[in-house]
């Protein structure tokens, strides 16, 4: 392992120095507002913070984007600004790429490709992608991690914990301790491209037989812990495709629904980052599913809890709802707290409840979601707050993210029938057996 790739003290200190100014400014202003009663222009300060963080690149942006989609992790003004951060990390130049590739595949690495493009085809927060052609003539996508990412991740997570703790002191509606732990665990996993390769292979198994979904194959001989090589899949951005083919909106929504929910209800697995950039559309309107860094595996009892809550809300069964929230990891449940949690749950489950064709904008439009979130937040403060369980974090985030995609598409679908087509034969024991077999076959760790 190259020295500059390790989680080093020097690397962390350098990152602290660069991140500290932006985070320190936030800490001072929030503390001044809380302790001294000084007025804080949150909208302006949030915009300043986004500008500062956006210039830092790297994992900090990814974490900020995650926080922006988790209800009540941050004040609304900050979440709105952080949501605008783009993964626009500066690309590594060709001399640097050559050294990085030699460190991963050896000094003769170029002889293992027929061609390898010098300029990155895409750049993200943790790495960049180069197009290449293998010796067998296959088109390839080579994702190469930026150097010193382990140090950057640890430094950024530590600084962001300052933001979380200060906000929580000022507002006790939501305890974010487990939110922090979950984000940290998922981000550290994303550093391991070997794990991402196993996730991609797992998704090929789970999507086998699902119409309209393509998962690129991994090339193990050209992959390492910091280099992931997949077959290159051609496709267009979803919104570009829909602009030219507006009649494809509903078909694409149906396919995306299956691509996300089949793994969850059959294997207990979710793609934790279902934004538009992780899908492309083929000419035949089938989808390419991309990027397998943010994958979450759930215990079968959690999946059962998700369905139990749905059935409890439909039947008005409070006892079943309480057991479902416990399965999700919520503790110290009072009747008042259950009532508050169910306000949010009805918002999330709303499109699945009605047996009719409808758009998500009827209940999930941004203004309705904001009003609902504010109402829940106020009620949580009134009843003494809640600690968000780890398993809730990415399930909630991914469901909201997927709903956001459907809103952008403007799809009109009978979500109720689509959903019941997946869950009506659900059996938790069958899921457990299927999950164990698939995870074992691909070397993916079992859920805790």
Main sheet characteristics = 5 strands, antiparallel
Structural class: alpha+beta
Radius of gyration: 22 Å
Low-confidence segments, ≥5 residues, pLDDT <50? 34-40
What would the principal axes of the Cα set say about the shape? Answer: globular
Number of helices: 18
Total E-strand runs: 13
Chain-averaged pLDDT: 83
SS strand fraction = 5-15%
Distance between the termini: 29 Å
Helix percent reads 55-70%
Task: Provide a short characterization of the protein structure.
With 448 residues, the protein is α+β, with helices and mostly antiparallel strands.
Question: Which characteristics define this entry?
Answer:
alpha+beta, four-stranded mixed sheet, 448 residues, globular, 18 helices, 58% helix, five-stranded antiparallel sheet, 13 strands
Account of the 3D structure:
- Helices cover 58% and strands 10% of the residues.
- Mean pLDDT is 83; it is low at 34-40.
- The chain is of the alpha+beta class.
- The strands form four sheets. Strands 1, 2, 3, 4 and 7 form a five-stranded antiparallel sheet that branches.
SSE arrangement:
Elements: H1 9-36, H2 42-54, H3 59-68, H4 76-82, H5 94-105, E1 113-116, E2 122-123, E3 127-134, E4 139-145, H6 149-170, E5 174-175, H7 177-190, H8 193-207, E6 213-214, E7 227-231, E8 236-237, H9 238-244, H10 249-267, E9 269-271, E10 279-281, E11 287-289, E12 295-297, H11 300-315, H12 318-328, H13 335-353, H14 361-364, H15 366-383, E13 386-387, H16 390-409, H17 415-423, H18 428-442
Parallel strand pairs: 5-13, 6-11
Antiparallel strand pairs: 1-3, 2-3, 3-4, 4-7, 8-10, 9-12, 10-11
């Amino acid at each position: 392992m190259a020295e500059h790739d390790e989680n080093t003290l020097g690397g962390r200190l350098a990152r602290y120095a660069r991140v500290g100014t932006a985070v320190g400014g936030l800490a001072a202003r929030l503390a001044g507002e809380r302790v001294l009663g000084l007025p804080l222009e949150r909208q302006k300060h949030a915009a300043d913070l986004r500008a500062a963080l956006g210039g830092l690149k790297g994992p900090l942006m990814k974490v900020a984007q995650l926080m922006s989609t988790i209800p009540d992790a941050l004040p609304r003004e900050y979440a709105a600004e952080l949501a605008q951060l783009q993964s626009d990390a500066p690309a590594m130049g060709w001399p640097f790429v050559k050294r990085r590739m030699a460190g991963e595949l050896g000094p003769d690495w170029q002889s293992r490709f027929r061609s390898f493009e010098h300029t990155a085809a895409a750049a993200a927060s943790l790495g960049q992608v180069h197009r290449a052609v293998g010796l067998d003539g296959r088109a390839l996508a080579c994702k190469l991690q930026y150097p010193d990412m382990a140090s950057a991740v640890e430094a950024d997570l530590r600084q962001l914990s300052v933001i979380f703790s200060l906000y929580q002191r000022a507002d006790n509606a939501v305890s974010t301790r487990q939110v922090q732990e979950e984000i940290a665990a998922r981000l550290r996993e994303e550093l391991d491209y070997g794990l991402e390769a196993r996730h991609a292979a797992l998704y090929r198994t789970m999507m086998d037989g699902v119409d309209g979904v393509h998962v690129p194959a991994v090339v193990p001989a050209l992959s390492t812990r910091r280099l992931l090589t997949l077959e290159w899949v051609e496709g267009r951005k979803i919104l570009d495709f829909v602009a030219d083919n507006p009649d494809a909106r509903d078909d694409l929504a149906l396919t995306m629904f299956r691509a996300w929910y089949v793994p969850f209800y059959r294997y207990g697995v979710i793609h934790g980052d279902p934004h538009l950039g992780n899908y492309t559309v083929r000419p035949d309107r089938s989808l390419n599913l991309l990027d397998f860094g943010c994958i979450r595996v759930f215990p079968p009892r959690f999946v059962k809890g998700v369905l139990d809550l749905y059935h409890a809300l439909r039947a008005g069964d409070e006892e079943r709802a309480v057991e479902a929230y416990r399965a999700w990891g919520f503790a110290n449940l009072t009747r008042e707290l259950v009532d508050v949690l169910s306000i949010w749950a009805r918002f999330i489950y709303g499109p699945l409840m009605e047996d009719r064709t409808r758009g998500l904008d009827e209940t999930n439009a941004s203004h309705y979601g904001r009003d609902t979130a504010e109402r829940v937040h106020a009620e949580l403060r009134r009843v003494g707050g809640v600690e968000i369980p780890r398993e809730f974090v990415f399930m909630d985030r991914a469901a909201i993210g997927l709903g956001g995609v459907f809103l952008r598409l403007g799809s009109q679908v009978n979500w109720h029938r689509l959903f019941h087509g997946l869950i009506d034969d659900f059996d938790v024991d069958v899921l457990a057996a299927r999950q164990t077999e698939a995870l074992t076959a691909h070397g993916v760790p079992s859920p805790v």
